[in-house]
Every structure is written in C-alpha cells, then in structure tokens.
Amino acid sequence: MADDLKKGLEGVLVAESGLSSIDGDVGRLVYRGYTIEDLARGASYEEVAYLLWHGTLPDEEELAEFSDAMAAERDVDDAILETIRALVEADERPMAAMRTAVSMLSSSEPEPDADPADREASLRKGRRITAKIPTILAAFERYRQGEEPVDPDPSLGLAANFLYMMTGEEPDEVAAETFDQALILHADHGLNASTFTSMVIGSTMADIYSAVTGGIGALSGPLHGGANQDVMEVLIEIDESGLDPLEWVEQATEDGRRIPGFGHRVYSVKDPRAKILQERSRELAETGDSKWYDITTTIEDYLTDEKGLVEKGIAPNVDFYSGSVYYQLGIPIDMYTPIFAMSRSSGWIAHVLEYQEENRLIRPRARYTGPDERELAPLEER
Ligand SMILES: CC(=O)SCCNC(=O)CCNC(=O)[C@H](O)C(C)(C)COP(=O)(O)OP(=O)(O)OC[C@H]1O[C@@H](n2cnc3c(N)ncnc32)[C@H](O)[C@@H]1OP(=O)(O)O
Ligand SMILES: O=C([O-])CC(=O)C(=O)O
C-alpha cells in the first residue's frame, strides 16, 4: 500500500465522473460536455438539473414534465415551517437553519422505505429536496422579517419563484434571469469539498437526505461556499472605512490577510464563472449603484497587477463577484451561502447517484503518529 501522504487529497483521483470537467490551467468548466458559458446563456436551472441527473438536455416536452413535477413538490409540511419559525426565534443563522430543515424533510418523505440502491427512488427524493430548499429558505427570510411565508407559485421557474417567495413580489425579468444564471453557475463543480462529503455519505448507502445535509454542512465553511458572504462583508467594510479600496487591499495584504473570493484548489487562472458574474455585476451597476462593481474590480486589478497574485495562481473564484450581484438584487448577505447550497444540491445529488451506480465504500486512512505502546494504569493511579 502506497505510503505517500496527500494532504487535503490534492490531485488524488478517487472516482470517475461524467458530470463536470474543469481545466484549471485555462479556466474552462463543462457540465456533461456543455461549456458553462453556453449553459449560462442558453439554459435554465431546471434544464441544468435535468442534464446533471439524466445525462442529456431535455426536449420541450421533457422539460415541461420535469419542471411541472418539481414545481408540484415545492410545498413543505407545517411541522417544518414551525421548526423554521422556532429557529428564527432562536436567532439561528440561515445556513444552519437550512441544514436542520433539510434533514427534517425526510420526515415527510412519501417513499421512506425505498432502498437507497433504487436509483429512480433516490432521484425522486433528490428532486423533492431540490424543489423544497427554496421554500425553506424563503420561509426563513419571511419569518425573520416578521411576515408569514408566501406560497410557491407553480407558474414561475425555480429561480423566479424563490425571489417571489422571499419578497412577496414577482421579480422583474433582469432579476429573475440573473438569479437563474447564478444558480446554473453554482450547480456543479467536480469533487469539491461539499460534493465529496455527500459522496462519502452516499458511499455508505445512507439515504440522499443524509448526503445533502452533510453537503450543506461542508459548504458552510469560509474556505468553501461561505466565502461569498465574506466577500460582501469585506466590500462593506471597505466602504464603511472610508478608505480608498486600494489602500484597504494594500493594508490587508501587508497584514497577511487572505482575500476571500481569491484562490482555488483547481483553478490557477480566473474562474470562468467569475467572469460571467463580473459581467452581470457590471450590467447591474449600470442601472443601480456602481460602487460594489468598482470596489471589486479595483481589488482584482491591484492583486493581479501590483501583487502578481494571479501569476502565483491565485485568481478570483466564483465567490468574488457573486456577492455584489446578489447584493444588487437586494438579497440579504447571510443568504448568499444558503443560495449556493440551493443550487449545488443538484450537483450533490447527481454525484451521489452516479457514484452509487458502482459503489465502493470511501474509506481512506491516516498515517498513525501517536505513541506506539502505553501501559494502562488503573484510574486511581493516573
Ligand atoms: C466555491 C469555493 O469553494 S471557491 C473557494 C472559496 N474560498 C475562498 O475564496 C477563501 C479564500 N481562499 C482560500 O482560502 C484558498 O485559496 C482555498 C482554500 C480556496 C484553496 O486552498 P488550497 O488549494 O489549499 O491552497 P492553500 O490554502 O494551500 O494556498 C496556497 C497559497 O496561496 C495563498 N493563498 C490562497 N488563497 C489566498 C487568498 N485568498 N489570498 C491570499 N493568498 C492566498 C496561500 O497563502 C498559500 O501561500 P503560501 O504557499 O505562500 O503559503
Ligand atoms: O471546486 C471547488 O473546490 C470549490 C467549489 O465548489 C467551486 O468552485 O464551485
């Protein structure tokens, strides 16, 4: 057995996958053969979820059937809504509330006894989870605002319906399209930490609810999905400090601070999703407040041109521009990472189902560095 240690499993191949391919040297991302740019331009989140779960893009009839089926699954039980309300009253954060509520969804699962090896049943469960997460999150925000949840509108797509349930108002076309595109960009990304977490759970043949709940937990950390919230908080910190963004970023790098939204385990160049989101941020800035777009580009230019970070392979990742896009759509900052999870649930589910097709328990090992042999003294003599 090879004894070389790969900290953080960097570069270790653990599975084959037909879902997404990343070329980190040139900044290319593909879902099942389609470039992320083409999907962002020409598909909806539902089409992408279908692509990830079924392997091909749907035709019109398949899409209508799939979207209707998902829309019909959006309601959540009153007991879950009550739990969300209680979590809001306890001042719980939205990401943690969502983790709890998603775990609780299994209590209303209509096929609780289905064998986890039954792919079709797991897919139906996965579809229910992805359909219900927006309802959970929007209800959280409504309760937090002292309002009652808004019932889902089956005539709206997943993205527009989420914005509608959160605000009580149907979003305009720009907001709905921008948000849908953001969901597409976040849907899948190889064996990132949260997807791998879901796969590890799935590899024990645990159910899909456990796998998605685990994925949410892994995504919440600041080194992973939590960075999108951190980016926006930094932008606000800069704005409120009254400092020129250049001064702030100079000081931050001198202090050895990590800049959230920069760096990636796989990309050594700018993330292709960051380029798309940067463009959306620029477009929104044209009709709204250009401040956030200006600060982000100033930071990026400084780190690229002056600090040469990009030459060192540390470039903007997907989280760098998503925050300012969501901010301009009026979404509360602590909802950014839950929104990431809302989208990534389709990727987690796709990877678990794919891995389970030829399942093997994931079980690596650690090099033992503890003492070799110790004598056990009785309690009173220790
Ligand atoms: C959706 C996503 O999960 S995308 C990632 C979201 N996370 C962030 O944006 C948080 C900020 N970024 C980071 O912390 C890292 O870049 C990670 C965790 C994403 C990638 O980590 P790893 O691949 O393990 O790289 P690692 O942490 O070893 O960093 C490598 C080098 O780049 C530097 N570096 C990495 N990210 C940054 C950053 N954001 N700012 C400044 N320097 C950085 C490190 O200091 C390290 O330098 P050193 O070798 O001189 O010590
Ligand atoms: O791939 C990764 O390591 C992080 C991730 O989830 C993403 O960039 O979307």
Can you describe what's shown?
The structure is a single chain. By secondary structure, the protein is mostly helical. The chain has 2 domains: 28-220 and 340-357, Citrate Synthase, domain 1 (Orthogonal Bundle); 227-329, Cytochrome P450-Terp, domain 2 (Cytochrome p450-Terp, domain 2, Orthogonal Bundle), CATH 1.10.230. Helices cover 56% and strands 3% of the residues. The protein has 16 helices and 3 strands. It has helices at 36-42, 45-54, 60-71, 78-89, 94-104, 119-144, 158-167, 173-186, 193-203, 208-219, 227-241, 245-254, 272-287, 291-306, 318-328, 336-357; strands at 20-23, 28-31, 34-35. The chain has a 3-stranded antiparallel β-sheet with strand order 1-2-3. It is globular, with a radius of gyration of 22 Å. It starts with 19 loop residues before the first strand and ends in a 25-residue tail after the last helix. The mean pLDDT is 96. Oxaloacetate ion (OAA) is lined by residues 189-190, 192, 265-266, 317-318. Keywords: Transferase, Tricarboxylic acid cycle. Residues 103-124 are annotated as: Disordered. One of its GO terms (molecular function) is citrate synthase activity.
